Amino acid sequence: MLRRWMLLPNAAVICFLLAIAAYIKLAGLFDTSQHHLRVEFLTKLFEESFLPTEPYVGLLANVSEILWCGTAVTCWFSYRLVQRLGGSSRQTGQYLLFSAVLISLFLLDDTFRVTLILALLAGVPKLVMYSLYGAAVVVYAKLFWQKILKTPYLLMLSSVALLVVSALADVAHLPGSGTPILMEDGTKLLGILNIGLYFYQVCQDEVLRSRQAIDR
């Protein structure tokens, strides 16, 4: 059954596309060159970064983003499902919600290059952004440390350690060519993979536990 809230995202996207169409159309009424520039801008918004001669470019970066996305969706879906089932504690719901929010922040930063753009355009050092994310993780751990200890937390710890190494490699500007890439992007990919595995197991356990509580 179609629910009313499902119409809202569709309405938002349609309004956005209509606004862009009006923006381009109005430009064409007064200045033809502006019209072509805005059409080119629209094309770039939907353009995929693909090189026919080098189709592998950005492959591992795309894998990282897919892993982030899959983990975020898993957390959001599990949070909503546990809420609907109603067999779990309030702390469990909060834990899944905060996890979903935190993972979504990392996903947005990695996909839209927020840290990089702020560093290049606004002069915000990468270290500042990494410190903010680190502080968020510390607050998260402080709030839910008892819950985390009941999960396969070694995966979580290894993920955090790998992402810290990646961030340090990014700001340290290590000498060499291959080693810095592996230290920054390789450790990040492995860290994201472990985060995905961790939350897959945690979310599965929480949903099953909630279901079992209802069946009793």
Structure characteristics:
single chain; 216 residues; mainly alpha; 8 helices
Model description:
The chain is mainly alpha-helical and 216 residues long. It has eight helices and no strands. The radius of gyration is 21 Å and the shape is globular. 17% of the residues are buried. The model has no long low-confidence stretch (mean pLDDT 91).
List the helices and strands and how they pair.
Layout: H1 7-30, H2 32-46, H3 59-85, H4 90-112, H5 114-122, H6 126-148, H7 153-172, H8 178-215
Helix pairs in contact: 1-2, 3-4, 3-8, 4-6, 6-7, 7-8
Short description:
The protein is mainly α and 216 residues long. Helix content is 83%, strand content 0%.
Helix content: over 70%
* E-strand count: 0
Number of domains: 2
How many helices? The count is 8
Mean pLDDT across residues: 91
Based on secondary structure, the structural category is: mainly alpha
* Biggest sheet architecture: none
Low-pLDDT windows of residues: none
Overall body shape: globular
Order of helices and strands: HHHHHHHH
Radius of gyration: 21 Å
Strand fraction: under 5%
Termini separation = 29 Å
